[in-house]
Amino acid sequence: MTTQTTGIHHITAFVRNAQVTADFYAGVLGLRLIKKTINFDAPEVYHLYFGDEVGSPGTIITFFPWENSRKGKIGGGQVGYTTYVVPADAFDFWKERLAKLHVEFTQSARFGENYLQFEDPDGLKLEIVAREQGAQSKWAFGGVSADKAIKGFGGAILYSTAPAQTAELLVNVMGLTKVGEEGGYVRFQSTGDLGNIIDVNIASMEPGHGGAGTVHHIAWRAKDDAEHALWRSHVESNGFQPTPIVDRQYFNAIYFRETGGILFEIATDPPGFSRDEETAHLGEKLMLPEWFEGHRTQIEQLLSPFEVRVLEEDK
Q1: What is the distance between the alpha carbons of residues 114 and 94, in angstroms, rounded to a whole number?
Q2: In terms of CATH, what superfamily is 8-314?
Q3: Is the distance from CB of 107 to CB of 101 less than 8 angstroms?
Q4: End-to-end CA distance of the chain
Q5: Where are the domains of the chain?
Q6: pLDDT tens-digit profile of 134-175?
Q7: Contact assessment for residue 13 and residue 25, using Cβ atoms and an 8 Å cutoff
Q8: What span, in angstroms and rounded, lies between the C-alpha atoms of 71 and 43?
Q9: pLDDT tens digit sequence for 75-108
Q10: Cis ω on the peptide bond leading into residue 271 (within 30° of 0)?
C-alpha cells in the first residue's frame, strides 16, 4: 500500500460542560454540532462532534464533557495547539470577532504565516490561520457567514517527549513530508488540503497529563475499510502496538501510542454522520448505538440537557 494519510480525520478533547462547549464551538466559532451521542466506554458522558455542514473528515473536533473532571496540563505527549483554517480574506474578520466576544488572543507568526492564538473556556489551545487551500464551508451560524466560516483543520502543533522519534514516525509511517524547520519547530505536510500541516517541537517537552482542556487523541484519515486494515498491519510492522479495529458507528478506528507519548488513531472516512440522521437534522437528537438503545431512558437521565444557541452579541 501507499503509506500516506491525507491528513487529520478528527481531534478529541476533554472539557467539563456541554453547554459551555456548545456556546463556544457553535456560538463563537460557528461550527455545526453534527452528532450528539455518548462515550461508548462511559455512557454517562456525552460525546459531541462539531465540524462543517456534514462533518467532513478534516473538520471534526469531538468532546467528552466530564463534569467535575480535573484540570489537565498541556505538555509533552499531547496535541499542543489545534489549528483551524479560514478563507484567505477572513483573518481580520476573526480578529474582530474574537475581540467582540471578549475572547483574548495573541498574534504570532510561524513559517511565514500569521496566527491568532487563544483558548477555549477549559484552556484548550486553539489557533486560526488563513489559507487559500481547502474547500469553503457551506455552514453559517450566528454571526459567522459561510464565506468567513472555518473551513476545517489547518493542522496541529504536536508536543512530543521524543520529538526525533515522532518526526521519524510522521515521515516513515504516516507518510508526511518534512517541509521546513524554524523557531523551535519542524514542519511536516500531508497530501490533503485540510488538516495537512503538522508542526512538532524540536526540543523534548516535559509530559503533560490528561484532564479538562487537553486533547485525548489525534486521528488520521484512512480512505476506506480495506485501506484501514492495511494501515493496522503497517503500524504493527513498524514496531507499534495498534488496538484491534473498533466500530465507532461513524467510522472504524485503531489506536496506538507513538514514542513521543501522543495517542494516535487512524479512522476511516466512511460511513460518516448521516448514517443514522438526515443531513438537514444532524446533531438535533441524542443518537445511541443499537446496543445502548434499550437503556435510553436511564442514559438520558444521567446527561445534562443543553442547546445550540446564537449568542446574545449576534442577535
Answers
A1: 12
A2: 2,3-Dihydroxybiphenyl 1,2-Dioxygenase, domain 1 (3.10.180.10)
A3: no
A4: 51
A5: 8-314
A6: 999 999 999 999 999 999 999 999 999 999 999 999 999 999
A7: no
A8: 21
A9: 999 999 999 999 999 999 999 999 999 999 999 9
A10: yes
